[in-house]
Amino acid sequence: MPTTCQDVDRRDASEQVAVERAIAELRAGRPVAVLGARPALVACAETVDAALAAFLSGLDAPVHLVLPAPRLRRLGLPERAGAGIVHLTAVEPERIARLALRVDARIDAPVASATPFDESALDLARAALMLPAVVVVPLADAAAVPAHLLTLDEAAIAAYRGVGVRIVSRAPVPLEGALDSEFVVFRGGDGLRDQVAIVVGRPDLSAPVAVRLHSACLTGDLFGSLKCDCGDQLRGTIHRMSETGGGILLYLDQEGRGNGLANKIRAYDLQACGFDTYEADEALGYGVDQRRYDFAAAMLRGLGVNRVQVVSNNPAKIAALAAAGLDVVGSQRSLGRVTAQNLTYLTVKRDRTGHALGRDIAERLEATVT
Known about the structure:
Blueprint: H1 5-27, E1 32-35, E2 40-44, H2 50-57, E3 63-67, H3 69-74, E4 84-88, H4 93-101, E5 112-113, H5 116-127, E6 134-138, E7 151-153, H6 154-160, E8 166-172, E9 181-187, E10 194-200, E11 209-215, H7 218-222, H8 230-243, E12 247-252, H9 261-271, H10 277-283, H11 294-302, E13 307-311, H12 315-323, E14 327-332, H13 343-353, H14 361-369
Parallel strand pairs: 1-7, 11-12, 11-13, 13-14
Antiparallel strand pairs: 1-2, 2-6, 3-4, 3-6, 4-5, 8-9, 9-10, 10-12
């Protein structure tokens, strides 16, 4: 019997559900079975305690720890370009935690190249917003998978982030300084999370629309943290859009450059010890930026927007919208306040990733103080 579109849709939905359940299991500290060329159990390194270690050890199978290239470079392998695996002779929670997280740790065993399966396991941990370090236990065959564990196909992990977005609700929400505003909630993208488009005023969709992609920042947006300028950019952009004919701000659930809130706070702790913002992320195993913007472009199209004037200091965001097929006609900066606490943060972003912040950051701080 030939495969129908409905069969494909049901299969895709089933794979999506399997990954969602796997994420929940991993975040709860339980391993999952991933079925690839050879099945294996996968557990997030940060959840390996004595009980989980005893369970994994009892499987009588080889065990290895998968670490991403940034973390391996931090551990003393400066030339490492790809993920690697450390074979474990025993499942020792303290050693795993040290290799996965401790800032002063050094590699203590030979490192082999990770397989595509290992890379998929790391992607699953990232999707779960867990530390990118996983313990993998290859099994002889599917019959060796413990019956009580959740199973999913390796292919489902790669397909997980390709889910489209759709509008699920919308309503007018008057804002301070922008009374004529509407919140449009989309669902989809990474993790089927809710993403918000804030339509300010009545932007002319036949002309280039002012657009800002704003990644959620709990500490800055809500609590006014002095470590960044996110809250200033958020509110300042909305006010300017209200005063200049309207625009659209996409509020994207990608906290901590896509690393998640827990890992963002871990990075803040490292920054308090002298690391800059990118060094801290690298010490945790992350690259410069894990965020994706393909679904942001889909949100804009869903609102009828095809030509944009991007309000951003970040060249990567501007390039991402252009790569997604939108007509980017120009960009404008979005500057927040400079504080003694965010001066280094802003300077590093300017110098390392080309943010359009100007050469006068220190002078702006001096002007603010005086």
